[in-house]
Specification:
By secondary structure, this protein is α/β, with parallel strands linked by helices. It is built from 21 helices and 29 strands. Among the domains are: 366-574, Glycoside hydrolase family 3 C-terminal domain (Rossmann fold, 3-Layer(aba) Sandwich), CATH 3.40.50.1700; 628-743, Immunoglobulins (Immunoglobulin-like). The strands form seven sheets. Strands 3-4-5-6-7-9-12 form a seven-stranded mixed sheet. It has a six-stranded mixed sheet with strand order 13-18-17-16-14-15, sandwiched between helices. It is globular. The chain starts with a helix and ends with a strand. The relative contact order is 0.11. Residues 8-33 and 447-451 have low confidence and may be disordered. It binds beta-D-glucopyranose. Beta-D-glucopyranose binds next to strand 7.
Length: 744
């Protein structure tokens, strides 16, 4: 006993020395603009880890492989190994949850910054802002003493109906990876592990716990894996969350192909795989096939698959100690990397500071998408405006919390109404009317039964009194702004929406208000596409905002008043009808026991462009208060080989009266391809600020390797020689300049 404790003291001292020796991580290495690189997992702690493992009992080891509370997995106190503490993070740091149930722990010091949801980050098309988010939220995770942030969520938006669309970035794999990487680098610079989720092919909520996802290998490689791969190979994410669903017959938390072969063998992942909550279905199989930590929903923690059942399996000789040690080693390693074990100078972090609210503001400021400004109503000219009717439940609705899943408890969420009150001059009177009521089907039983199938069912009927109030407000005001869309009770984890229809009879409300005051602006607040065909016809001015964080209301007011010139671009296609969307056009959503992604690689705009279907608003679309002109498109050469970088340069001129930011988007077509290809694919983009009347020369660097397609015959990426057309525009359908190059 005594010898043992001397031994432990020596090991702790050795670990301490190693930690002191460990150099401060380099700050982010920006190899070129928008290229971020994370710090790789080092092997410097291997000896210390082996020593610790040699002192652990089998029970102690297995205690580290499963939850010991709702958001932590076990440690070994006597050896100085702490619990691994996790926290949700899609909108910011989730409030503290009780150890044994989903109930909030009731702390009074866990108020956090509410950041714009991922859809909003994606709409900025600005990787630097994605880094800002990761870095800022990483600070907050540390201030709350956490080791792992369950973020970012980087599943591809396959259907516009997806309940978690607002939580994910985009339908496009290139934009996805360019945003995921800086986000992760930002988090991990704060001695916190990023946990990328949900690995992989978790693109629907309907039957997510059972559905078997099937798709061809090319689609997997080209569409669904690139962001995960970049997260591992470029950002060096320290952890990965296995998804709920099955892939090709096996649950993703026991999927040898995905966890061992692709993640570890191909991509060289050295971190830990954590299960989604209650996504584990086996003991030996899941461990052997790559899972490291089992998390779950409330039940006695020793009943987990990787708890007593694993001890039992070990005793029966069904699993070796060496196999168990492999997983312990990974967990210890990531704990060392983020200085959770005996770490000196670990980032302390800070929570809900003014600087973080400013980060939240800055992200939101570049996310708002101006969809229509036909009469140049915006920015608002307040001359002669004495009153504005502000209409709609969404003018006051808060979205930091709500629905099923993780939100943020915050002291600051500026609503759109408050934003206008803060920003409008005092002599402009605001006439607020709620307009529509957020109501759901009353039948509780129906509601419960429907929830996992198609989410909360909205009552699509206006309340007569509310309508009357709205009409009165609109009649008695010089102009009106309607805040419509959805909210986080309607768009929510665990269910997909039933259709694209605007809920709560909003369309009718908009129509009635327009009838009495045609000078009406419509502002959508939502995280996923809606059917706006009718609304688009009725109004000349349409804006899209998101679940936009603590400062969302101030940002919206600043956009309306022109303090912010909008520069957001849609990160997904807004279809006219749901039947136009690929998963629906091919009748392959939501499936039943299995879902086959019949549209293959033609996800999002790839489908609309290739099949010549007109969307309501295309991918990458968004207007500004100024106009930009692209000209002088050049490449540095005409012919390239596969190891080259293509330098594409062009002039971007701001031809309007105000300064603004524009997103130059590079799309590539391969018209002579021998294999099926989408009409065009995003292969580069750059957001630039240009003063009124000024021009900027912009260069986008495109590695020829990005032009490859995945060959199922050869099982590898291939680049076809021949002609490629490079197109620069400001949306997937707008304003193109073209140039052709050759690949040898
Ligand atoms: C979600 C995860 C989340 C976990 C813990 C699951 O239902 O799918 O994204 O991190 O719960 O809250």
């Amino acid at each position: 006993m005594k010898i043992n404790s001397i031994y432990i003291t020596i090991i702790i001292l050795v670990i301490g020395l190693i930690s002191c020796k460990k150099e401060q991580k380099p700050t982010i290495e920006k190899i070129a603009t928008n290229v971020y690189q994370g710090t790789a997992i080092s092997s410097e702690f291997d000896d210390a880890i082996d020593s610790l493992i040699s002192l652990m009992t089998i029970e102690e080891k297995i205690g580290m492989l499963h939850a010991n509370s709702m958001f932590s997995s076990g440690g070994v106190e006597r050896l100085g190994i702490p619990e691994l503490k996790m926290v949700d993070g899609p909108l910011g740091i989730r409030e503290e949850i009780s150890r044994n149930s989903w109930a909030p722990a009731g702390w009074d010091n866990d108020y956090a910054t509410y950041y714009p949801a991922a859809g909003s980050v994606a709409a900025t098309w600005n990787p630097d802002l994605s880094y800002t988010f990761g870095n800022s939220v990483g600070q907050e995770a540390r201030a709350r003493g956490k080791d792992m942030l369950l973020s970012p969520a980087i599943n591809i938006i396959r259907t516009p109906l997806g309940g978690r669309t607002y939580e994910y970035f985009t339908e496009d794999p290139f934009l996805n990876k360019k945003l995921a990487v800086p986000f992760i680098v930002g988090i991990q610079e704060n001695d916190v592990m990023a946990c990328i989720k949900h690995f992989a092919a978790n693109n629907q909520e309907t039957n997510r716990g059972t559905v078997d996802v099937l798709m061809d290998e090319r689609t997997l490689r080209e569409i669904y894996l690139p962001a995960f791969e970049a997260a591992i190979t470029q950002a060096n994410a320290y952890s990965v969350m296995g998804a709920y669903n099955k892939f090709r017959g096996d649950y993703l938390c026991e999927n040898d192909l995905m966890l061992n072969k692709i993640l570890r063998n191909e991509w060289g992942f050295k971190g830990v795989v954590v299960s989604d909550w209650a996504a584990v279905h086996s003991t030996v199989k899941s461990l052997e096939n790559g899972l490291d930590i089992e998390m779950g929903t409330p039940k006695s923690f020793n009943e987990y698959f990787l708890a007593d059942k694993l001890i039992e399996a070990f005793k029966l000789g069904e699993i070796s100690e060496a196999e168990i040690d492999k997983h312990i080693k990974r967990i210890l390693n990531v704990l060392f990397q983020v200085k959770a074990i005996n770490g000196k100078n670990r980032v302390q972090g800070s929570l809900a500071t003014e600087a973080h609210y400013q980060d939240s503001y800055n992200i939101a400021a570049e996310s708002v998408v101006l969809l229509k400004n036909e009469k140049n109503t915006l920015p608002l000219n307040l001359e002669g405006v004495k009153s504005i009717a502000v209409i709609g439940n969404n003018a006051t609705k808060k979205n930091a919390l709500g629905g099923f899943g993780a939100g943020v408890k915050t002291k600051r969420e500026v609503t759109p109404l408050e934003g206008l009150q803060n920003r409008l001059p005092e002599n402009v009177k605001i006439n607020y009317a709620e307009g529509y009521l957020e109501r759901y089907s009353k039948n509780e039983n129906d509601q419960k039964a429907e929830v996992t199938l198609h989410g909360p069912l909205p009552v699509n009927k206006l309340d007569a009194t509310k309508l009357e109030e709205a009409i009165e407000a609109a009649k008695n005001s010089d102009m009106a702004i309607i805040f419509a869309g959805s909210n986080r009770d309607y768009e929510t984890e665990a269910s997909d929406r039933m259709n694209l229809k605007l809920p709560f009879a909003q369309e009718e409300l908009i129509k009635k208000v327009m009838e009495v005051n045609p000078n009406t602006i419509v502002v959508m607040i939502a995280g996923a596409p809606f059917d706006l065909q009718e609304v688009e016809k009725m109004t000349s001015t349409l804006i899209w905002s998101w679940f936009n964080g603590s400062e969302g209301g101030n940002v919206l007011a600043d956009v309306l008043l022109g303090t912010i010139n909008p520069s957001g671009k849609l990160p997904w296609t807004m279809p006219k009808n749901i039947e136009d969307s690929p998963a629906h056009a091919t009748n392959s959503f939501p499936g039943d026991e299995t879902v086959t992604y019949k549209e293959g690689i033609l996800v999002g705009y790839r489908w609309f462009d290739t099949k010549n279907i007109e969307p309501l608003y295309p991918f990458g679309y968004g207007l500004s208060y100024t106009n930009f002109e692209i000209s002088d498109l050049k490449t540095n050469k005409e012919t390239y080989n596969i190891n080259n970088l293509i330098e594409i340069s062009f002039k971007m001129k701001n031809i309007g009266n105000v300064a603004g930011k524009e997103v130059a988007q590079l799309y590539v077509s391969n018209p002579d391809s021998k294999v099926e290809r989408a009409t065009q694919e995003l292969k580069g983009f750059k957001k630039v600020f240009v003063k009124s009347g000024a021009s900027e020369i912009i260069t986008i660097t495109l590695p020829v390797k990005e032009l490859a397609y995945y060959s199922e015959i050869k099982n590898k990426w291939l680049i076809e020689p021949g002609k490629y057309v490079l197109k620069i525009g400001n949306s997937s359908r707008g304003n193109f300049e073209e140039i052709s190059i050759n690949i040898q």
